[in-house]
Amino acid sequence: MGKDVLYIADRHKKEFTYPIHNHEVYELNFVEHAAGVRRIVGDSSEVIGEYDLVLITSPDLEHVWEQNTCQSDDIREITVQFDLNLGEDSLLGRTPFLPLRKMMDEARKGLCFPLSAIMRVYKELDTLSQVKDGFYAVMQFLTILYELSRCDGARPLATSSYAKIAVQDDSRRILKVKNFISKNYTDELRLPQLAQIAGMSPSAFSRFFKLHTGRNLSDYIIDIRLGYAARMLVDTSRSISEISFQCGFNNLSNFNRIFKRKKGCAPSEFRENYHKTRIVV
């Protein structure tokens, strides 16, 4: 990008052909009229609808939009790659930009926005590539980011364990348990043990965890283990059997079944897809 702050590509096409990739700069990617396309961000794989908007702020997070079952002959994709200094001593480190900085931090796992948020910034996204003055283009893009940071319903895509993001939580009890799980995911983890760490009874902690996180404790543990497993599949040449046991699964068939149910493909397919097409730009 050189000295440029923004790179904007606004294009119409009939299919997605770009391989899975990652890059140093941040990216906001908008896709419309592409129902059936498969979006892969880290260890997340989802089939999108008519509209899709994702923010990615990690240089190590692989992503791709694949054609899959999409039949549209007029796909529109707006990709904005940008380089902004979010340090505390920069302009964007000041108080008015705190919601934006928080969103950018969350987007290290990839952040997918709901339709209501997309409609809120659609006009600005639609005209962004037509703004010829660089200053006003940056201002319009910052407005898009700020409006998105004020929207409810944005959700992370990759697991924190895959994206190598430190565990965070507002509750000190939950954070303590999450950190324990992150450090001991290879071991057998039982509810009474985790409840004791939180200083609660097992039944009370189980309810508290679900109420606070919106997820069952067992599902959370499985997702953490799968995230580490997916990262090992991409970054190492270890056998799938070795990875399954190293990530706390008690047998290979159980690992294969859960991985396919959660990720939409077998571990061997996941590894093959990443190794076959992965590039760094």
Q: What does this 3D model show about the protein?
A:
The chain is built from eleven helices and eleven strands. It is α+β, with helices and mostly antiparallel strands and 281 residues long. Helix 2 (115-127) runs antiparallel to helix 3 and helix 5 packs across helix 6. The chain starts with 5 loop residues before the first strand and ends with a strand. The mean pLDDT is 91.
Briefly characterize the structure.
With 281 residues, this protein is α+β, with helices and mostly antiparallel strands. It has helices spanning 98-106, 115-127, 134-149, 160-163, 172-184, 191-198, 202-213, 217-235, 240-246, 252-263, 267-277, and strands at residues 6-13, 21-22, 26-32, 38-41, 44-47, 51-56, 63-66, 75-82, 111-112, 155-156, 279-280.
Sheet with most strands = 6 strands, antiparallel
Count of alpha and pi helical runs: 11
- β-sheet strand percentage: 15-25%
Share in helix? 40-55%
SSE order: EEEEEEEEHEHHEHHHHHHHHE
Gross geometry: globular
Structural class of the helix and strand makeup?
A: alpha+beta
For the biggest β-sheet, the strand order reads 1-8-3-6-9-10
By DSSP, the count of extended strands is 11
**Span of the ends, CA to CA:** 11 Å
Mean pLDDT over the full residue set: 91
User: What radius of gyration results from the CA coordinates?
Assistant: 20 Å
Low-confidence runs? none
Annotation keywords:
6-stranded antiparallel beta sheet; 11 strands
